[in-house]
Amino acid sequence: MENLLWFIIVGVVAGFLAGLLMKGKGFGVIVNLIVGVLGAILGGWLFGILGLSFGGGILGSLITAFLGAVILLYLIKLFKKS
Fold first, then answer.
1. pLDDT tens digits, residue range 16-52?
2. Residue 62: how many other CB atoms lie within 10 Å
3. 1 CB-near residues (< 8 Å, 6+ apart)
4. Model pLDDT, residue 77
5. CA 61, 37, 14, 70 torsion-angle sign
6. Which distant-in-sequence residues (6+ apart) come within 8 Å of 34 by Cβ?
7. Which residues contact 51 (CB under 8 A, 6 or more apart)?
8. Looking at residue 50, what is its pLDDT?
9. What ranges do the domains of the chain cover?
10. Residues 64/44, Cβ–Cβ less than 8 Å
């Protein structure tokens, strides 16, 4: 249960940071936080398939979640335009 809580916290922080980076491409604070949690899942899956790792611990998880959230925000932006 503690791991799930850390996963959510890291995802929320990553979503917040990704929303700041993608300024003007975000969808509001709440959606960006949700995207951060989903981005953490996407980043873990994608980088796992590619064999990439940003190290263990909170920092590595935050980097993975942040990059996953940025990718997800970018993809959402592409589909939203169409």
1. 888 888 776 556 777 777 888 888 888 889 988 998 8
2. 19
3. none
4. 80
5. positive
6. 15
7. none
8. 92
9. 29-82
10. yes
What's the pLDDT at 27? Answer: 67
pLDDT of 4 over the 90 cut: no
Task: Give the pLDDT score at 24.
Answer: 60
- Interatomic CA distance for residues 40 and 18, integer angstroms: 11
Maximum distance among all Cα pairs of the chain, rounded to whole angstroms: 40
In a 3-state reduction of DSSP, which class is residue 75? helix
Q: Which residues of 38-51 are buried (b: 16+ CB within 10 A; e: fewer)?
A: bbbebbeebbeeee
- Work out the number of other CB atoms within 10 angstroms of the CB of residue 72: 23
Q: Do 59 and 33 touch, CB atoms closer than 8 A?
A: no
Q: Are 76 and 42 in contact (CB under 8 A)?
A: no
Residues in the chain: 82
Q: For 54, phi and psi rounded to 5 degrees?
A: -110, 25
